[in-house]
Amino acid sequence: ATITVPANVIDPTPANNSASDTDTVTPRRIVLTKSWVNAFVGDNVSLVISGSGINSPVPGLSTAPSTTSNASANVAVGSVVTLAEAFQVGAAAIYTTTLSCIKDTGGAVVTVTGSGLSGTITMPADSNVTCTFTNTLIPLPQLTMLKTASVGAGAFTLGVPASYSLNVRNTGTAVTSAVSTVTDTIPAEMTLGAMPSGCSAVGQVVTCTIPA
């Protein structure tokens, strides 16, 4: 700002006829973290913050069930920020994914645009922001099988009939939706005898089906 002194006015201190004011916008900070719900242990994602107003971005990494190094960045107020995760181990298809953001001051919700593994927000002027990707495991069947021999921990004896059983269990979080198939190969030195209902053999390979 500058003033001009009229010609007919004597100015005893002309050095103060101009002044300047500099305003520096303080960047806001955003943190991206991660939450797992019923995840497979060892599943792993990278966390990334990007956008035109981003400064000093730090990527993050999260491993299920609960080990996370957050992603973070300084962000110019009003900038559009992109938040993304990418699976390094595991599959996104077996999870439902949500992204939520709140202001650190006051806890108000910040609107997120997008869905799945990527979303955007506009950086507010009045607060830093914390965002969280939450991956919830979709209920799935998980089959396990235990083989038990009639001789226990001993060995089969040449010429002596013996038997074994295959016990299949669903230890997952949902019922099976289709027939399950179990195959087992009998050693060439053994002769196959009786089989339970639902089983058949081709050569030494036994195949059994289990209803849904």
Structural notes for this entry:
By secondary structure, the chain is mostly beta strands. The protein has no helices and 16 strands. It is rod-shaped. The chain starts with 27 loop residues before the first strand and ends with a strand.
A few lines on this structure:
With 212 residues, the protein is mostly beta strands.
Question: In terms of topology, how is this protein built?
Answer:
Layout lengths: L27 E10 L6 E7 L3 E5 L1 E4 L3 E3 L1 E5 L4 E10 L5 E9 L5 E2 L7 E5 L6 E9 L5 E7 L14 E7 L9 E6 L13 E4 L2 E6 L2
Parallel strand pairs: 1-11
Antiparallel strand pairs: 1-6, 2-4, 2-7, 3-6, 4-5, 7-10, 8-9, 8-11, 12-13, 14-16, 15-16
Keyword list:
212 residues, 16 strands, mainly beta, rod-shaped, six-stranded mixed beta sheet
What is the count of β-strands?
16
Share in helix: under 10%
Summarize the helix and strand pattern as letters. Answer: EEEEEEEEEEEEEEEE
Report Rg. Answer: 33 Å
Give the N-to-C terminal Cα separation: 81 Å
- Regions with little confidence, pLDDT below 50 for 5+ residues: none
Mean pLDDT: 92
Overall outline: rod-shaped
What is the spatial order of strands in the main beta sheet? 3-6-1-11-8-9
In this structure, how is the largest beta sheet organized? 6 strands, mixed
Strand coverage percent: over 45%
- Class by helix and strand content? mainly beta
How many H/I helical runs?
0
